[in-house]
Design a protein that fits this description.
The protein is of the alpha+beta class and 633 residues long. 38% of the residues lie in helices and 14% in strands. The longest helix is centred in the middle third of the chain and has 27 residues. The relative contact order is 0.10.
Length: 633
């Protein structure tokens, strides 16, 4: 089992596990494949999209292995099916007047034909695929302007490509951008405040470092993978704050249902009476979604999620001819839409209710996750399967939401961190070689979960132990092959990849989530800087600045004291230096594009008074290393 840095094939134990999983799948009637292809109009070869330098930011050609007639043993049969469905790409007519471009990114972009142009729903993750989708729409449906944009919710795959469908002039003119109330706050919280850690973990969740192939990345479940183009955030101009609110946009009436705390903290469904079309955002998709997303985010409210789906049935189902969403393929006909909504509703309510039932019996999160099974009526459906979220980690999420991370056992109240615990476990096992001997025997028996748990202690105790790194990679790899969830597979295989191919330290650390900083409102930009302040280094430091942003005219009192960075709009600190700069200059200084001294020298930052406070403040802000260790210390 010595590692050569390359993936290995599925073991006999994994092949047997896949065969057993295939026998438990629902019966295949082909309906999903028919729905995924229905209304096809046109596409571009392999859905390939390039950036200005000619590099691909999206390309399905590497996934051609999914056309093979036989499933490889290294891919779970359920994920294999979902991955093949997510290969159907191009422009589709949902119903006359409603069109989607699917599988040009992780999410769908939807176009509503208005009286003068196109209303765009969810402009993908990055600008280049969004622009390619708009070009495809214009090619087949007419060269019309974008008249409005709707963000269904606050996740980056539903707003990050907005500059691919809007020009700077559109943005400056205040073109209508509609979002649920709280959108900007939640987008910043989820994608900026914790953005570096979340972005790094997202490389694992979406298989960004894995090569597509039977031994690598196959599918994310929610879609194929994530695009790698230009990401931005343009704030909405209109917020929807209550269910029942209506708007007429480009001659099209829209009825809104706000659904806070469901798949995203700020999310909304909406209905188009003219087209009898219901958009369920990401609250319903052709899979079990995440109540907790492994990339990291707030735990979602399964009870509220089920309730809002039920409300959508009451509000819209009897008027719905077609149901579409921000991922996957539509459902046509009132009866099918109503049945789909009802099963999705009960899926989340079942997980919620049964987790709490077992918790009230005294079971711990891991015990509940091992025990919970869907009822036969839900287990028989394809769209309830864990291609993205899983029953296992969603049950843990419900427990966490109500009872937190602590399971009540005092032995788990103050456990050692990984390195210190690892050293003690290795000693308990009789040393590194004794631990490896036991772990290798477990590997040969196909007990890969135990191998991963056991050897993880040795990896953290001795991160240079080649035998431990190799065995841990082998175990994680087989767990990845057996995973039906795309994110679980990607997490396991990404861990194996980095164990076999350690990343050398970078002299200039890359930082995650910086692309969205430049367009943030000034107050939220300062919020994002407060989590960068190194409180330990700040110590007893006191800094006071009167900061004015020249691009917006907004002014803030900015202070550092008690190891905390605070800002107050419209206030001034008596006698403090006055700093004038634009947002871009501040972001450049914070991220190291240029120093505070350089910004002061070239005049992009100006200070009336002593400039040392600004220089000191910038020096106290951490620059986050994107490539921090996950499977190693």
């Amino acid at each position: 089992m010595t590692s050569n840095g390359s993936p290995k094939t599925a073991t006999a134990a994994t092949a047997a596990a896949q065969a057993a999983a295939a026998a438990r799948l629902p019966s295949e009637d082909g309906a999903d494949f028919d729905d995924a292809r229905r209304g096809f109009i046109g596409t571009i070869p392999d859905a390939r999209v390039e950036n200005a330098k000619g590099a691909a930011v999206w390309d399905l050609a590497p996934f051609a292995f999914l056309d093979a007639p036989e499933r490889p043993a290294s891919i779970h049969p359920g994920l294999w099916r979902q991955a093949r469905l997510n290969m159907t790409h191009g422009l589709f007519e949902v119903t006359p007047g409603v069109y989607q471009v699917r599988n040009f990114d992780l999410s769908n972009i939807t176009f509503i034909e208005g009286e003068k142009g196109y209303i765009v729903i969810d402009p993908l993750i990055s600008a280049e695929p969004a622009a390619a989708a708009l070009a495809l729409m214009r090619k087949h449906r007419g060269d019309k302007p974008v008249t409005a944009v709707i963000y269904t919710h606050s996740h980056v795959d539903h707003y990050g490509g907005v500059r691919g469908v809007l020009s700077d002039a559109d943005i400056a003119a205040g073109l209508t951008i509609i979002a649920p109330e709280g959108f900007l706050e939640e987008a910043v919280s989820e994608n900026v405040l914790a953005g570096n850690a979340m972005s790094r973990r997202a490389t694992y969740m979406y298989g960004s470092l894995l090569k597509p192939g039977p031994l690598g990345h196959v599918d994310a479940g929610l879609g194929k993978t994530v695009s790698t183009g230009r990401v931005s955030l343009v704030p909405p101009t209109v917020s929807i704050g209550r269910t029942g609110e209506t708007m007429t946009v480009d001659g099209i009436d829209i009825e809104f249902q706000v659904t806070p705390g469901t798949e995203a903290p700020a999310e909304m469904n909406f209905y188009f009476p003219r087209y009898k079309a219901l958009c369920m955002a990401e609250n319903c998709s052709c899979q079990l979604h995440n109540l907790y997303t492994p990339r990291g985010a707030q735990v979602r409210d399964a009870k509220a999620w089920a309730w809002y789906i039920d409300e959508a049935i009451d509000l819209f189902a009897e008027r719905t001819d077609v149901l579409f969403a921000s991922h996957h393929w539509p459902k046509w006909g009132e009866a099918r839409a109503r049945r789909f909504l009802g099963q999705q509703r009960d899926l989340y309510k079942f997980i919620h209710d049964q987790t709490l039932r077992l918790a009230n019996h005294g079971l711990t999160p891991r015990e509940i996750a091992e025990r919970l099974r869907l009822p036969p009526t839900l287990e028989a459906e394809w769209h309830t399967r864990g291609y993205y979220g899983t029953l296992n980690h969603n049950a843990k999420a419900v427990y966490q939401r109500y009872l937190g991370w602590f399971d009540g056992n005092p032995a788990n109240l103050h456990t050692h961190p990984p390195v210190e615990a690892g050293q003690r476990y290795v000693d308990l096992a009789g040393g590194p070689e004794a631990l490896l001997t036991k772990a290798r025997a477990a590997y040969e028996a196909g007990d890969y979960r135990w191998v991963a748990e056991l050897v993880n202690h040795l990896v953290f105790a001795e991160p240079d132990n080649a035998g431990a790194l190799a065995l841990q990679a082998d175990a994680l790899e087989q767990l990845g092959y057996q995973a039906e969830s795309g994110p679980w597979r990607s997490f396991y295989l990404s861990g194996a990849l980095e164990l076999r191919n350690p990343r050398p330290p970078s002299p200039t650390p890359r930082q995650g989530a910086t692309g969205q900083l430049r367009d943030l409102p000034c107050a939220t930009l300062l919020d994002s800087l407060s989590v960068r302040l190194n409180g330990e280094e700040a110590g007893e430091t006191n800094i006071a600045l009167n900061l004015t942003f020249t691009d917006t005219g907004e002014a803030f009192e900015v202070r550092v004291e008690n190891g905390v960075l605070r800002h107050r709009p419209g206030r001034t600190a008596p006698g403090a230096p006055a700093v004038r700069l634009d947002r871009r200059t501040l972001v450049d200084m914070v991220t190291g594009v240029r120093t505070a001294d350089e910004a002061l020298a070239d005049g992009s930052a100006k200070v009336e008074g002593d400039a040392s406070g600004l220089i000191q403040l910038i020096g106290l802000l951490d620059r986050f290393d994107f490539w921090f260790g996950i499977v190693t210390p």
